[in-house]
Design goal:
The complex is a heterodimer of chains A (304) and B (181).
Chain A (H helix, E strand, L loop, with lengths): L4 H32 L9 H10 L9 H19 L18 H8 L2 H13 L2 H32 L4 H7 L7 H4 L1 H15 L10 H4 L9 H26 L6 H20 L6 H26 L1
Chain B lengths: L9 H12 L1 E6 L8 H5 L10 E3 L8 E5 L4 H13 L5 E5 L27 E3 L6 H17 L4 H7 L1 H11 L11
Parallel strand pairs in B: 1-2, 1-3, 3-4, 4-5
Classes of the chains: A mainly alpha (304), B alpha/beta (181).
């Protein structure tokens, strides 16, 4: 069997690039938040230093095997998600582990990290963490429905469940799915707001309310691993939405521009908004985004 | 090539730089000095420029910031919070009350000198210190970290018996759970 070394190289460097880009985006977001609040804010590398510091902590508290495994589940889910998303289109290095049903697989694997965290957090015995987990899983029930509806509308419209075929459909600017299926995009982007966890949907990790929720009992290296996973997962979600709706990217410059602009939607919404309670958030998700999602599916089926 | 234990490797330099520029604060703000923390962190003085950030729980925090006097009742909670933090961890005593008791020096239920009970790395003088001096205190702590002299956690573990003795002298109902840090 011949080994495709370019593919191996891609598999090695994709998570590293995802981590570096995600962590820099996190720092830039802190800077933008600071500018909105009339501050200067930390340097863009601040999140990277935070994570290095967390990894260089000397002691780490451990409550048991499941708690030990929770960040591992999270980072496994993030990297697996990343591997099934084509980072660049028509690239020899960043060829993903694509197969014909990868969109359906992604819908499953994207919730795996949260479920693994929920299992592990249960063992820490911290009441704040338990509240955070119940809030997180409720929110997930909220935003998964419009997200799945929007993906299903696109699957019906283009008769495919493969991301690479979706990329092949969007061969030029006017063929981007955001223009071909705007209702699905609206449903998807509203679900995306909930997925990214910025305000008004940040009830899961409300620091002043439930002491940062699920990670409240995690310190040191565990927290570092969770933040690494968060950075990678942020990048993976951004690239997924870029691939589905914005026609992917042929080179890194385009990718950075598109993902950054996409990232600004939840960030800028978050800066100017207060926090929804859990039931308000779920009511929101089951009202407007779901209505747009159903409408998108109906329109597609009617056109057939 | 001989291996010199005291020589600084590149990993140590990166680690101390990261520790120095990322201080997550657990603010124990029961004293009156806590009123100076919001201006330090918000738009006028903006402590986030130096990598200061509030931590939600003791597990995630690096710096325990004790703002002002400590009653014997709150001292117990401070000790418990301090022992839950992950090392390397630092303590900043904030205001005159943590140095010599300040205006509460003859009170029957406050402690006078904080460093009898916890290993304090930096004291910030003043009653109460302005945000400028708070920031200068944090920069002093950053200097100590860079020089490797902010070793309060090690000091605490080495002299645990002495600290425990002092703590038990003022806390009469010592019922603390056993846990490791």
């Amino acid at each position: 069997m011949e080994i495709n070394w370019l593919k191996v190289l891609g598999i090695v460097i994709t998570p590293i690039i995802a981590f570096l880009v995600g962590v820099t985006y996190g720092g830039i977001v802190r800077n933008i938040t600071a500018r909105v609040q009339n501050r200067f804010g930390p340097p863009p590398t601040q999140n990277l230093w935070d994570i290095i510091k967390l990894y260089s902590k000397k002691t780490t508290i451990n409550h048991g095997v499941m708690q030990h495994l929770a960040p591992v589940f999270a980072i496994t889910a993030s990297i697996t998600t990343l591997y099934f998303i084509p980072v660049l289109r028509d690239s020899k290095i960043f060829v993903n582990l694509s197969f014909s049903g990868d969109l359906i697989f992604l819908l499953y694997i994207m919730v795996f990290g949260s479920l693994g965290m929920a299992l592990g957090v249960g063992q820490t015995g911290n009441p704040n963490a338990a509240i955070g987990v119940s809030r997180g899983l409720s929110m997930m029930v909220g935003y998964e429905i419009p997200f799945v509806l929007s993906i299903v509308a696109i699957m019906i419209q283009f008769q495919t469940t493969s991301l690479n075929e979706l990329l092949a459909v969007q061969d030029k600017f006017t063929n981007w799915i955001i223009f071909q299926s705007p209702l699905a995009f609206i449903a998807g982007i509203l679900a995306f707001l909930g997925m990214m966890g910025y305000a008004p949907f940040d009830v899961v990790i409300a620091p002043a309310e439930i002491a940062s929720g699920p990670p409240s009992e995690f310190g040191g290296k565990y927290l570092g691993l969770m933040q690494t996973s968060g950075s990678i997962f942020t990048f993976a979600k951004l690239v997924l939405f870029t691939d589905i709706f914005l026609g992917g990217a042929g080179d890194f410059g385009t990718l950075v521009v598109k993902t950054f602009l996409l990232y600004m939607i939840p960030v800028l919404t978050g800066i100017v908004n207060p926090r929804f309670r859990t039931e308000q958030a779920i009511r929101f998700f089951w009202k407007w985004p779901t209505a747009f999602g159903i409408l998108a599916v109906l329109v597609v089926v009617w056109k057939e | 090539m001989t291996y010199d234990k005291n020589s600084k490797k590149i990993v140590d330099i990166i680690q101390s730089f990261a520790r120095k520029h990322s201080l997550w604060i657990l603010g124990y703000g029961t004293g009156c000095g806590a009123i100076e923390i919001p201006p330090t962190m918000t738009s006028r003085y903006d402590g986030e420029r130096f990598g200061l950030r509030g931590a939600a729980t003791p597990r995630q925090a690096d710096v325990l910031l004790i703002t002002g006097y400590l009653a014997t009742k709150t001292l117990k909670r401070v000790i418990r919070s301090y022992e839950q933090m992950q090392s390397p961890k630092y303590v900043i005593g904030f205001g005159s009350c943590t140095i010599n008791g300040g205006m509460y020096w003859d009170s029957y239920n406050t402690i006078n000198a904080l460093d009898q009970y916890l290993p304090v790395d930096v004291f910030i003088n003043g009653c109460m210190p302005r945000p400028e001096s708070v920031i200068s205190g944090f920069i002093e702590l950053q200097k100590l970290i860079a020089e490797g002299r902010a070793d309060g956690a090690e000091k605490y573990q080495k002299n645990l018996e002495w600290y425990r003795e002092n703590q038990k002298k003022v806390i009469h109902n010592w019922k603390m759970p056993d846990y490791n840090w």
